[in-house]
Amino acid sequence: FFPNHLKIAIKECLISSIQQFTFVQRLSDRFVTFFSPYVEIKISQYDGYQYNHAFASIETYLGEKATDKAKHLRASQVKESKDLVLKRDDTRTRDEYKGVNVWWEIETDSEGYRTYKLTFHRRSRDIVTDSYMKHIFEEGKLIDAKNKKMKLYTNNPSSSWGPNKTALWRCIDFEHPASFDTLAMDSKKKEEILNDLAAFSNGKEYYKKIGKAWKRGYLLHGPPGTGKSTMIAAMANLLNYSIYDVELTAIKDNSELRKLLIGTASKSIIVIEDIDCSLDLTGQRSIKKKTKKNERFLMSWKKDKEKDKEVKEDNKSFVTLSGLLNFIDGIWSACGQERIIVFTTNHMAKLDPALIRRGRMDMHIELSYCTFEAFKILAKNYLDLDTHPMYTKIESLLKETKIAPADVAENLMKKKSEIDADGSLNDLIDALEGKNTQKATVDESSEKHGIKRFNPFRNLF
Ligand SMILES: Nc1ncnc2c1ncn2[C@@H]1O[C@H](COP(=O)(O)OP(=O)(O)OP(=O)(O)O)[C@@H](O)[C@H]1O
Ligand SMILES: [Mg+2]
């Protein structure tokens, strides 16, 4: 019915009254806040890029608290053997502390970030800020320690990183049975590693005193199937740390690597498996070489353009050596505490010396082919044997044959259902005497060509 100019006038009038209303509302909000007897404190999930640990403590504390009074509950079973864990699932929770009432509310913004809002009466300000807040952080940490589940994280490809930063890593509960007791290796070396780990995990004061970031790097090297991944699992079980298994090939550049590192929690082991295979660490240098060569030969405008494009594309597709070095000992690794970094490789010689120099990787641990001492541990694990008449023969055969503990274990496990120790040991002797040389050759050649064996962590996802 209305002519166009009238329509526009009505629309403008509406917009201006909405604007006025919003302005008035904002003013009245401020007015109410100014005279309100209530005080608000906000605690966000992230402080810049850094995860806010206070947020986690509050979440744990409120999640566990007073589930009997909550109307909405969420049930989960942490471990198969454990009872159901009930958590409250309300967005608003009332809490009482020393006769003071406080209200907690959780808000999620449009980008998916969450913030806790704590509201209390002005007259309780001192008690809330001085002792209540301290009380919940401590309670939260205690509950966490009591329920501590180890996690195994792996990084998501950056294309799936959403505004909610939890998407940087995905995780599952870590339940690997490996332990240092069952790890077959030289006992002296094992002792040395155990002492080193103990010194590290109790070293908070020491690291502070010497002014170093509280972190330690281990380089595990050795042929396939010698127990590198198993040792990482044993380390995690020993220290009760979570594992972050970094898949370097899913990371586009150094800045993504930094983001991932900042997104890890303390008391964790950051693992980069098969460092020689997963990263083209010579990439930067080969680009420079390529560029120089190109400068000499490719003079035309068109070809120069192609060259630029190539360099750019190469640059964005992988993490560089300097990025990785920064990751290990640069300023970024100092922003978290109590981290262990583990690299594994089958080919020490392929690694850039800068990456493995002492001080950067604090300890180099070689896991070697099966020795007689290691065999005895495996026989104890698999067959429950302390000694056996065939041991003398096996001892002399092991001195002259290279066989990975994984292959020894496989032979010992075959007859497990019958618990036939003699049969298993005979199989092993056959394998050692070369009746099974095919297998050994396959292993040797896969080692030579960097072909990867089964990785127990990757397969869990
Ligand atoms: N030293 C060892 N002690 C006990 N078990 C071992 C040892 N080495 C290997 N095993 C057994 O062999 C299997 C494979 O070993 P693991 O995955 O740890 O080898 P790896 O050194 O990581 O090999 P890769 O270089 O191929 O990754 C393990 O599941 C474990 O049962
Ligand atoms: Mg491995």
UniProtKB/TrEMBL annotation:
InterPro entries: AAA+_ATPase, AAA_N_dom, At3g28540-like_C, ATPase_AAA_core, ATPase_AAA_CS, Mitochondrial_chaperone_BCS1, P-loop_NTPase. SMART domains: AAA. GO terms for biological process: response to stress. Its cofactor is Mg(2+). It catalyses: ATP + H2O = ADP + phosphate + H(+). Residues 214-371 form the AAA+ ATPase domain. The keyword ATP-binding applies. It comes from the Eukaryota. This is AAA+ ATPase domain-containing protein.
